[in-house]
Structures are given as structure tokens and as C-alpha cells.
Amino acid sequence: MTAAARRVCLGVAGVLLAFGLAQFALWAGGVDQAVFPLPSTVVGSAADMLRDGSFWTATIQTLTSWAEGLGIAVGFGVLVGLVLGTLPWAESAVRPLVEFLRPLPSVILLPLVLLIVQESHETEVVLIVLAAVWPVLINTMYGIAEVDPVATQTLQSFGFSPWAVAWRVSLPSAAPFIATGVRIAASLAFVVAVAVELIGSGMNGLGSYLVQQQGGTAGVVPLLAVAALSGLLGLLLNAVLMGADRRVFRWHHLRTAAADAV
Amino acid sequence: MKRLGMRRLAVPAARLGVLIVVIGGWQLATRSGTSPYFLPPSAIVSSMYHQWFDGPASHLWLTTDATGNLLPSIGRMLAGLVIASLAGVALGVAIGRVRVLAELTEPLVHFGRAIPPPVVVPFFLFLFKIGAPMEVASIAFGVIWPVLVNTIDGARHVHPGQLETARAFRIGPVQRLVRVILPAAAPKIFAGLRLGLALALILMIVSEFQGSTEGIGYEVDTAQSTLDMSVVWGALVLIGVLGVVLNAIFAVAERRALAWQRGSARIE
Q: Which of A172, A192, A235, B242 might form a disulfide with B114, Cβ 3.0–4.6 angstroms?
């Protein structure tokens, strides 16, 4: 059996094993089903949701906010990261500001941004941007710092303008770093999107869909079903971004053979 | 030498200058009080002082508001961080070192990590009702996945030569774990913890917004309904400072723990 086949077989076996063990333990142990429902019940509830139009509407709303927020964060993060990466004095001057803003969990800004923006979708996008911009910015800065100075100096000595150097050398060679930042930002953006929808009133998306399921007659089952489905959605988003990263930066992955850990 | 000294002074001076310009500009722009939402920094600081740091000296100048809201929030976050780190590292080393275990659990781990942690907060709220256990569980759920995934990766890629050397010297399994595997995996583990720290802060706020009777997030939630902007801004600054302090402590711990690494990397 090849290594890949073995991986798939054991992976499937692991999922089935975990599912079966949980199912059997909860059934045989006589655990209160209202608190710990059988995995099969949760899967059934998730399947019902997939046939339900309102679940899909919520998913599309979340994905729309996610994509808008991520897009703005990437544009802004790359631009500012490029400027700060090329101008070390500017980077060291604004660093205290960045160090203060970066760890600030953007969800704490929800009440304030909601009052100022007065519109729930825009508020969500603003908060996603505030969370997702940092990994992109920091990775762009690191990427620019790693650029081979010989390459940039060569172009400079041929009379290229600083912006031409940035466009032709710095950005392409920093691109794999930026891609890593984008992947971290994408998963953070998804977390913040759902978080904002969950705690903000008048929001639309998976988080608010979850709130609607809270306290219903079905108890805890739909809550777990939404968690499972959002996990699958997260897997899908991850796979798409990883695939794009591998395809676009094949040369980089071949060269460094670096394990993808983040 | 002289130029180096100048440069060493120039960077902090520039940083201080930027901070002064930003805070001063903010103060000037908001002093007139035309916007009900943007408060001048002086008002934010004085409100923070009166709300949290105006207490008796016997309580380290903390007010009852501070001991009742700030300390529980920070305590729960640290509890969640510690529980998730210990569990994540223990499970991660086991999975990373045992190949069959890694293959069996791979899809499950990827699935668990892909769940945006805020979506499990309602489940924990149902399970534990309102209170500290629900919040600690939510934070721990958020932190454990990045720690677990990174520990698995770190433990799996220990240099075989190091392990063979340890075996050749008949170093027992416990010593091998403590002296070879964990140090080799440490950089990855720290990378996971760094991601976990950001998630812990988010989940601290989310779980307090969802269901709590005290805490920083709870204060912001109630201040929002009464439109008390000074509390909202104060909490914001406080959480920002908390994030900076945690990151700084973390950076020091990381540098200490990985100090040996830089030396060995240089030799390679």
C-alpha cells in the first residue's frame, strides 16, 4: 500500500472510529441526551440544515463579509507593509503604535464601531479588516526585509525608480511570505466574522443563525450541528487557499521544502 | 561610535515623537467635543483612573470595580491558556511521535482546527450555564488547536540523529522526552501559543458578551446599552495594554526558552 493510500485509509478509519466510539459510549453510558446528544442525531440535524434555505443564506452572508473584509485587509496590509518594509525609519517610528493595535482583539471594538458606522454589515467588515490586516502587514514587512539586496541594488543602479524596484523585485520575492500572512488572516477573518455575528445584535450570517437556534426546543443539537457545519466550511476555505498557495508558489515550496505549519 | 550612539537615541526619540503626535492630534481633534463617540485621551485616562485605579492602597489602588471585573477576566483567560497549552502539548507530542496515531487523527485535528471557536460558545453556555467554567472552556477550545497542530508538527520533525544519539547513550524515554523531543519542538510550540494568545483574547470578550455577570467584556456590553462612551474607550485602552503586556511577557519567555537554539542554528 502506498503512503498516500495508507494515509487516506487510516484517516477515514480514525473518523469512523471516533464517531462510533462516541456514539456507543453515549448510548451505552446512558448520558443525558439533552446535554450530550448522539453524534448521529447531530449529523441528522446538520443534514436538515443543509436542506434549509435560511442556513445557506446565512452562510453566503458570512462568506460575503469574510471576502470583503479579507480583500480590504490584504490590499491595505500589503501596501502599508511594502512602505514600512522599504523605509526602516518609518517602520521603527510606528512600531509602538502597531504593537499596541495588533494584539487588540477587534471584537471589543464592536459596540463603538456599531455606534459610529450605524450599519451592521459595514461594522462587521470593519472589524474583520481590523483583525485580518496585521498578519498580512507583518508578513509583507518580513518578506520585504528578506529580499536579496543584490537584486534591488542592481535595479537601482540601472536607474529604476524605487516604486519600479518594489513592483519588479520586492513584491514578487516577498509574495510567498505574503501568501502565508493571507492564509493566517483568512482564518482569523472567519473567526471574527462569526464572533461579531454571534455577539452583535442585528447582524446577519452564520453567527446570528446560531443565535436563532439557541434556546429552541431542539436544545443543544442544532448548536453542535452549526459548529460541525462551520468546521466543514472552514476546512473548505483552508483547502482552497492552500491549493492556490501551492499552485502559485510552487517554485518557492520546492526550493525551501518548508513544512506548512501555520 | 558616536554615530552609533546617536542612532540608538534617534529611534526611541522618533517613536516617542510619533506617539506624541498621534495622542496630541487625537486630543486636539476631539477636545471641542463635537463627536459624541470619540473622546479625548485625557478624558479616557481620567475615566479609567476613577473607574479602576482609584482604590485604597491596601488593594494596590484597585477599585472594587477593577477587582470585580478586570481580575476575573484576566484570571479566566490565563486559566484557559494554561489548560489548553498543557493539553495541547501532551496530546501533540503523543500524536507527533506515534505514526499510526498521527494518521488516524489527522482529519479530526484538521476539522477541529477549522471550527471557528466562537461557534462553540453557545454549546458551552448550555453545558456549564453562565459563569467561569463556560468562559474558561471557550478560551481553552480556541487555544488548544493551534498549540496541538504546531506541537504535532514540531514533535514529528525531531532530527533523527538527536534521537539516535540519545538512544545510543541509553537515555530513558522520560529523559528523551524532556531533553530531546520537547526542546526540539519548542519553537513550533511557541509559534502555536502565539496564535493561541490572540484567539484567547477574542474568546474572552465573546464569552463575556454571550453570557456573563462580570468581566471587561460584560462592562463594555452594559456600557454600550447606556451609551457610556468613557467605559467603552477605557476598556479598549485597557485591553490594548493587556495585549501588549502579555505579548511582551511571552516574547521574553520565548527568547529565554529558545536561547540555546540561536547558538545551534549558527553552528549549522
A: A235
